[in-house]
Design goal:
elongated; mainly alpha
Amino acid sequence: MDTGLLAGGLVLKSIDYAQTSEIADNPDYYEATNPFLDQDPSQSDVNLYFACSVATQILVAWLLPDKWRKAWLGTWIGVSGINVLHNYRIGVRF
């Protein structure tokens, strides 16, 4: 079950990455919800943020006991899902 949660979260994070890359490449959009990125992030900033985010998500999941791992992974599914939905609503497709 943890593998499924991790995979689901990483799929959503991949979509969020694609959308955030579109935001970085398109002056009509700006990054409004991520406190770690500027409003007009460079592609290299987007790449670094998502690489660190994925690595942290996996490392923490690996270190946590089963009970907390599910909560951790579920939280990231929720966060990434909300980000993807927000981006989609403002017109950023994937």
